[in-house]
């Protein structure tokens, strides 16, 4: 309180000259300790013919939230049921996957799921081709994608469980194979969602491009046979992937000037998507042939 005015005033937590400060109680945070919670910066290098985009809005604060006992119990029980599923009957598996998908929209539970290597590996196995129903495989795909979507910390730790001696391949390779061979519209749509979530990591995006990702997107965009509504939904996901990850600011400006479908923030029409994918394919092929 200011004794002269009688008004309460805020005081910075700075010691007065006559105050003793216990330096042992101070914590110095090294910037390097925060690297695991920062998204990798999208940089366009000479080796990459396509600009790798990075949305800064995806950087979220790492704040430990408060959760009630019921929610924690639901997560623990659902994770246990998925991890201990014997692949013989998927009826009991669906409710557990649905619970995890719902909880994984939370930054906290998405990160908790990603840290559990056993659970991540089980979800990976569930989305692979098997005798399980397409409903289970597509739901496992959705859970995986939801947990890491817009959650850089969860994405980084989830990927750390793969690409080692025991698990030499990861979810990206599974998505590529699914987009090449699967025909279920539901599964293909959710695989595109998982692909979008994975490619928030620049290494995954570059690996996709190196594996013929642009041609894969063209193939997915033209997937047949498919009902009109399912086809339009899948094409929209491919278009959003192109807009989010494969266009430079110059591309966006040029296309906005030359294409009326960009008016009022609407999605570009299918013709625009195909033209741009073909341009990307030519650009990438040309750079590979030049050896640059």
- The number of helical runs is 13
Rg calculated over all Cα atoms: 24 Å
Total strands: the figure is 0
Structural class: mainly alpha
Helix share, percent: 55-70%
Residue-averaged pLDDT: 80
Distance between the termini: 67 Å
Describe this structure in words.
Helices cover 55% and strands 0% of the residues. The protein has 292 residues and is an all-alpha fold. Helix 4 (117-127) crosses helix 5 (134-148) and helix 7 (171-181) packs antiparallel against helix 8 (185-198). It is globular and about 55 Å long.
Provide a concise account of the structure shown.
The chain is mainly α.
Question: Top keywords for this entry?
Answer:
mainly alpha; 292 residues
What order do the helices and strands come in, and which of them pair?
Layout: H1 69-83, H2 93-103, H3 107-115, H4 117-127, H5 134-148, H6 152-159, H7 171-181, H8 185-198, H9 202-210, H10 213-221, H11 228-246, H12 249-258, H13 270-289
Helix pairs in contact: 1-2, 1-4, 2-5, 3-5, 3-6, 4-5, 5-8, 7-8, 8-11, 10-13, 11-13
């Amino acid at each position: 309180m200011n004794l002269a005015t009688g008004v309460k005033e805020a005081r910075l937590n700075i010691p007065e000259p006559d105050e003793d400060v216990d330096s042992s109680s101070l914590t110095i945070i090294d910037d390097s300790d925060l690297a695991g919670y920062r998204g990798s910066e999208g940089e366009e290098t000479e080796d990459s013919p396509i600009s790798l985009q990075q949305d800064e809005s995806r950087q979220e604060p790492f704040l430990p939230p408060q959760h009630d006992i019921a929610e924690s119990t639901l997560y623990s029980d659902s994770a246990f049921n998925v991890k201990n599923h014997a692949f013989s009957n998927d009826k009991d598996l669906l409710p557990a996957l649905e619970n995890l998908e719902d909880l994984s929209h939370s930054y906290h539970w998405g990160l908790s799921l990603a840290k559990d290597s056993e659970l991540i590996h089980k979800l990976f196995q569930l989305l692979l081709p098997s005798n399980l129903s397409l409903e289970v495989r597509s739901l496992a795909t959705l859970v995986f994608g939801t947990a890491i979507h817009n959650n850089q910390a969860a994405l980084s730790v989830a990927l750390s469980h793969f690409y080692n001696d025991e698990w030499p391949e990861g979810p990206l390779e599974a998505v590529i194979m699914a987009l090449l061979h699967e025909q279920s519209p539901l599964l293909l749509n959710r695989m595109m969602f998982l692909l979008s979530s994975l490619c928030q990591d620049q290494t995954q995006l570059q690996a996709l491009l190196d594996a013929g990702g642009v041609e894969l997107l063209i193939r997915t965009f033209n997937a047949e046979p498919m009902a009109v509504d399912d086809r339009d939904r899948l094409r929209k996901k491919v278009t959003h992937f192109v807009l989010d990850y494969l266009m430079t600011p110059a591309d966006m400006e040029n296309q906005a000037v030359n294409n009326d479908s960009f008016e009022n923030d609407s999605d570009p029409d299918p013709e625009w998507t195909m033209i741009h994918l073909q341009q990307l394919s030519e650009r990438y092929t040309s750079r590979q042939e030049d050896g640059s």
